[in-house]
Amino acid sequence: MAKLQKSIDKRNALIKSTIELVNNNGFHATPMSKIAKMANVSPATIYLYFENKQDLVNQTYLEVKSNYTAFVFETYDKDTSVKTGFELIWRRIADFNRTECEYSFFLHQCNNTQIIDEPSRKEGIRHLQPLLDLWKRGKQGGVIKPISDYILYACSINPLSFLMMAQKQDQFQLTEEQVEDAFLTAWDSITL
Amino acid sequence: MAKLQKSIDKRNALIKSTIELVNNNGFHATPMSKIAKMANVSPATIYLYFENKQDLVNQTYLEVKSNYTAFVFETYDKDTSVKTGFELIWRRIADFNRTECEYSFFLHQCNNTQIIDEPSRKEGIRHLQPLLDLWKRGKQGGVIKPISDYILYACSINPLSFLMMAQKQDQFQLTEEQVEDAFLTAWDSITL
Amino acid sequence: MAKLQKSIDKRNALIKSTIELVNNNGFHATPMSKIAKMANVSPATIYLYFENKQDLVNQTYLEVKSNYTAFVFETYDKDTSVKTGFELIWRRIADFNRTECEYSFFLHQCNNTQIIDEPSRKEGIRHLQPLLDLWKRGKQGGVIKPISDYILYACSINPLSFLMMAQKQDQFQLTEEQVEDAFLTAWDSITL
Amino acid sequence: MAKLQKSIDKRNALIKSTIELVNNNGFHATPMSKIAKMANVSPATIYLYFENKQDLVNQTYLEVKSNYTAFVFETYDKDTSVKTGFELIWRRIADFNRTECEYSFFLHQCNNTQIIDEPSRKEGIRHLQPLLDLWKRGKQGGVIKPISDYILYACSINPLSFLMMAQKQDQFQLTEEQVEDAFLTAWDSITL
DNA sequence: CATGAATGAGGATTCATTCAT
DNA sequence: TATGAATGAATCCTCATTCAT
């Protein structure tokens, strides 16, 4: 078990290093050797845990995305009202973007570039299934606009990614107050 | 003139090739040699027109962005009502995203990665100054929500980028009807 | 130890190849790839031992120079008479120029071109400190002319470099007899 | 004639630029394009005057060397005494090294590297024929040591090159007084 | 005679990946 | 399992030289 433990530690260290370095330099400007060095590991060791560089990033992506989804729905209860449920999810996503910005920036990079294999990325917004279910309920209840989930997402959730990016680029400060503004705007946009 | 013409042709061909290849493979996975080949030019010739790879992409970015801005405001008349003006601009942006998707995808890539030099990217949304002016008027007139331009942008304009991306990844079809839905959603989100 | 040994072997092979190729073609006409090939090593391997081409040549220079100095003073005893001491050193330098002409030619190239970094070259003739000390003693004893060490060096030691060069270019044969002539001339030139 | 004049001007400008740039950067670090630019000429124009880069440097070398020889013997009268004649020549060479250091440094570079074609360089010290003749007379008259001209040259003339180099590298200042010291040393070295 | 644009060949350097230990 | 050394295949960029004008 000690051995297995050690292995998981190394794998985690590699994934952490990958996120940090890819965030700062981009995928192609991040050499395996640097990832190895930051994880205190030999370059060759990476290949014990991952097939190749692409696999390393793919797995990192999937892991971060799964963390994201878990975080977003951690406190969600599907039996609440549509409005309460949406607000809960939306605020969790906002929290994630603000407090876990390493992760959210990494996801954003992957979602908006050719870094990740098509298969991994093609899943679209299906990982937010509980939110989609909620929207379905909202549409049936006449609360949410009867339009494509992609548009709902684009107008209510995706703006948080943009604001996180703008903050990262020092163009904008995402204060508490701004989050309130953003929430109301999001809610207005998707409701009838 | 024939000579100068030829030069401009080559420069244009290089920029076109850059856009296409960077769109498909990303900046670092696009060798200068491929750009040259696609432009029917020797690799060395690129350096007659651009200082280096970074300069090539920077200039390409600035050129595309300038095309984008020109297109967006081409039909704009600043003396219309806020609603009319916004709709006009919004629809031009939507058109650009749909018909010039090579360009808009390239811009999106650049805006969301480390490809471009800080200075070029840091300009933020200032290139949309007429829109910002319109929003200012709208805020004064009690039509537009009195919130940060970045939030207004994130909720009303940026969604178009996301939808373009989703379409590019075959997750979504941006039909005429969807555009109507998206516009109403955008308008609802930013108005009081 | 086997591993370390191997490393040192490779480094030595690289330095040896560098000397030979730079001697025959000059610094800039010597590609790293040829150095690698001659050392039976991949081009990339060079960069495990040296930072870059400049560093490779700098280190080679320093190493050769240090060999030179060691050789020159190997048999020197600072308690001899000025004449005996000078003759000993002079003959060692002559020997080095004749038997290690690969080395001495390389040094000569470096000393007379812009190949080497200023810092490495600027040391001047200080590496011959024991000889300078001897001259000091000789000046105090009224044996050696009370003139600049640089002139003493130029007239008594540097001629050997010139003769080595002339021999290398097949203009001249540095026979035993010529060495005797050269020594007497050198001695005459620096003594009162 | 106007045309011919112009041509000679360009050729001279090219040779001048070559000297300056090769002095500062070395042969291989001096691109033809820079030579052309410094001479206010198109790169292609160089090839109207010289066959290729090697030819340009060879011709530059021969021209500078010929200037050198002319300068050295300009004031020489072969009917003086050996001592007077030698002193005259030696001082002209010293002057050249001090006042025309661009030229003398260039010559030194060429003489001590692989820059120049063998044929051009192989001439050795034959260009100093009047000096060799003088030495011959001196040997017959029992004034000059009966040893190889190369050794005489190495000990009496070549030191000036070394001192010029040392000065160029800021290790040494070649003052009037030092020149006197150097002359006496040179004379002592070659006389019986 | 003069040129600026164009280029093919080549060179320094990097990096994902492998392999002997 | 873990590694450091090693490398071949790229990649960016430069430059001597040519050619259409």
UniProtKB/TrEMBL annotation, chains A, B, C, D:
UniProt keywords, alphabetically: DNA-binding
The keyword Ubl conjugation is annotated on this UniProt entry: no
Domain HTH tetR-type: 8-68
Keyword DNA-binding: yes
Cited PROSITE patterns: HTH_TETR_2 (PS50977)
GO molecular function (one): DNA binding
One of the Pfam families matching this protein, by short name: TetR_HI_0893_C
Database matches in PANTHER family: ACREF/ENVCD OPERON REPRESSOR-RELATED (PTHR43479), ACREF_ENVCD OPERON REPRESSOR-RELATED (PTHR43479:SF11)
Protein name stated in the entry: HTH tetR-type domain-containing protein
Source organism (scientific name): marine sediment metagenome
